[in-house]
Design the sequence.
């Protein structure tokens, strides 16, 4: 059965989404909504969506098209209202990150989805990168022993324009949440507490929170440090961060591109150091569950068709949001914050 879908928010991300949706069998776009009708119409034309319905008002579009699914890629401040409207219209919802602006909103959306009996999931596409899957598999195999610390660096200087330059805590809310979700995926560890400092360099063109350093205590006492800036020009890292995983028996590094290396210790010691030997990691990711947005969409559509609950369902993803909001609360309060959902 073909599933009918409405896509809300025809901004920059709509291109990525519509390209990904085109790769999924049995999904038909019935309508496009945006506060700016011209944007919806331009997207319809660019993607050759024929006589797809367009509207500025989501409620009216839902009434007109009666879709099975709403794809939500509006700005974060509009998310709660959009997802609530979609669930009230009996639709399954796949949202962009962050899933909400507060834990209260996130809990409310989870409860609404449960009451409606609908799938509610979030695009955390970094989980669906082949190298993230490879690292998760190697950490789970115990190759590094028990993970004792993880470190992620993110330094880029993009001039986006648009909503990002006018919001508070922009790095933590809009970007760091990818790394926070990825570390949960790669280690399987929950976050317990966080201490975070934000700063805005003199050169920053963002309103607030362009740069942040956060120290999380994860399960088993492992520490996760995140250092990031969205206005650090030169020698940029990957968009996926540059990572180091330290375990009781070795270390794995990933440059966020194609360089994935690991060394484990042997029983020998030379001078000050235990011998560490390179470990070859299999090139291929474990089968399936990759492809960024396409991978998230496949799992979401699979769940809508009666398959297993998506990995990024709201009820789980609230833990990644709690890491972000915990870091923000810590930066505001100047002290360590316990992470609760
Ligand atoms: N997963 C990723 O890798 C990734 C990457 C970039 C952005 N994002 C997320 O995607 C979302 C959108 O980002 P973007 O860069 O496309 O932003 P954007 O500003 O380019 O587009 C957002 C669009 O939503 C529309 N909009 C706002 N409120 C609306 C409402 N109530 N009803 C209908 N339309 C509404 C705006 O008019 C705009 O056209 C954000 O949550 C962002 O964090 C995710």
Sequence:
């Amino acid at each position: 059965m073909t599933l009918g879908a409405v896509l809300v928010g025809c901004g920059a991300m709509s291109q990525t989404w519509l390209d990904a949706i085109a790769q999924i069998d049995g999904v038909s776009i019935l309508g496009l909504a945006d506060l700016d009708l011209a944007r919806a119409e331009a997207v319809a034309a660019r993607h050759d969506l024929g006589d797809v319905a367009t509207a500025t008002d989501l409620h009216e579009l839902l009434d007109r098209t009666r879709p099975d699914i709403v794809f939500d890629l509006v700005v974060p401040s509009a998310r709660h209202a959009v997802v609530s409207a979609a669930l009230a219209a009996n639709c399954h919802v796949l949202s962009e990150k962050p899933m909400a602006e507060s834990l209260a909103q996130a809990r409310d959306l989870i409860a609404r989805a449960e009451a409606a009996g609908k799938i509610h999931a979030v695009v955390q596409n970094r989980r669906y990168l082949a190298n993230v899957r490879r690292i998760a598999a190697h950490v789970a195999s115990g190759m590094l022993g028990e993970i004792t610390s993880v470190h992620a660096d993110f330094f880029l200087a993009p001039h986006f324009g648009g909503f990002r330059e006018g919001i508070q805590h922009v790095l933590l809310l809009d970007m760091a949440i990818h790394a926070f979700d990825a570390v949960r995926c790669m280690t399987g560890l929950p976050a317990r507490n966080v201490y975070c400092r934000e700063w805005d360099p003199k050169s920053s063109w963002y309103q607030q929170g362009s740069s942040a350093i956060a120290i999380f205590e994860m399960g088993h006492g492992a520490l996760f440090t995140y250092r990031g800036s969205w206005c650090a020009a030169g020698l940029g890292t990957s968009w996926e961060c540059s990572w180091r995983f330290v375990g009781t028996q070795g270390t794995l590094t990933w440059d966020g591109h194609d360089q994935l290396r690991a060394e484990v210790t042997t029983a020998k010691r030379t001078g000050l150091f235990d011998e560490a030997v390179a470990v070859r990691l299999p090139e291929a990711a474990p089968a399936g569950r990759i492809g960024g947005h396409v991978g998230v969409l496949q799992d979401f559509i699979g769940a809508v068709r009666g398959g297993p609950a998506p990995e990024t369902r709201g009820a789980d993803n609230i833990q990644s949001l709690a890491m972000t909001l915990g870091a923000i609360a810590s930066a505001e309060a100047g002290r360590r914050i316990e992470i609760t959902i």
Summary: The chain is about 35% helix and 25% strand. The chain has a mean pLDDT of 96. The chain has two domains: 3-118, 127-290+321-338. The two ends are 37 Å apart (CA to CA).
